[in-house]
Design goal:
The complex is a heterodimer of chains A (117) and B (117). Chain A has 117 residues and is mainly beta. Chain A is built from no helices and eleven strands. Chain A starts with a strand and ends with a strand. Helix content of chain B is 0%, strand content 56%. With 117 residues, chain B is mainly β. Classes of the chains: A mainly beta (117), B mainly beta (117). At the A-B interface, strand 5, strand 9 and strand 10 of A face strand 5, strand 6, strand 10 and strand 11 of B.
């Protein structure tokens, strides 16, 4: 009964490779997010989609491309991986409708630890 | 600018002690949301509480309590009778209209709490 799931949990790859991380939520939420947590535990939002539309696009390299095939899925594709991309990537989801009792409470997936060698 | 400051980098207590984690925020929004998340050693991010700026009532949930004071721009978190299972990194976060929208969480740097037996 996982609410927000991510695959894979661990990803080890060489510099220059292309990789994808998948995220799915079964909470019926209409907004999904990608966050990056660096080695110092600092959390920063990267992207957000609401009903498959991009609503937040922070200053991230364009090697990172999110894709939302439907409102329950938000995948993250990373091209030409660099050492500095090593981090934990978290997917999250929330109910985007203002006024609902659970509005913008974000629920996070378990994270994907990406290591670039 | 929107900002969240968690000045306590690490706190170490002995079991059964009470501990307060500080969170100070800056925002130019009149309507905003404040959050606390817990990240235990296993790595997942667990939602604890959301508070909107119009609700200054303190909240208690079991051993957890939160003190929201707009006058000092603080949203502090107290754990009463701490337990070893409370050991985690705790994050305070803020969202507001002028910082990218209510869905964009701005996190503090986190406070690492170690509870020793």
């Amino acid at each position: 009964d996982t609410a927000v799931s991510q695959t894979p949990k661990y990803l080890v790859t060489q510099m220059g490779n292309d990789k994808s991380i998948k995220c799915e939520q079964n909470l019926g939420h209409d907004t999904m997010y990608w966050y990056k947590q660096d080695s110092k535990k600092f959390l920063k939002i990267m992207f957000s989609y609401n009903n498959k539309e991009l609503i937040i696009n922070e200053t991230v390299p364009n090697r990172f491309s999110p894709k939302s095939p439907d409102k329950a899925h938000l995948n993250l594709h990373i091209n030409s991986l660099e050492l500095g991309d090593s981090a934990v990537y978290f997917c999250a989801s929330s109910q985007g409708v203002a006024g609902s009792s659970s509005y913008n409470e974000q629920f996070f997936g378990p994270g994907t630890r990406l290591t670039v060698l | 600018a929107q900002k969240v400051t968690q000045a306590q980098t690490e706190i170490s207590v002995v079991e059964k002690e009470d501990v307060t984690l500080d969170c100070v925020y800056e925002t130019r929004d009149t309507t905003y949301y404040l959050f606390w998340y817990k990240q235990p050693p296993s790595g997942e991010l667990v939602f604890l509480i959301r508070r909107n700026s119009f609700d200054e009532q303190n909240e208690i949930s079991g051993r957890y309590s939160w003190n929201f004071q707009k006058s000092t721009s603080s949203f502090n978190f107290t754990i009463t009778a701490s337990q070893v299972v409370d050991s985690a990194v705790y994050f305070c976060a803020l969202s507001g209209l002028f910082s990218g929208g209510y869905n964009k969480l701005i996190f503090g740097a986190g406070t690492r709490l170690a509870v020793h037996p």
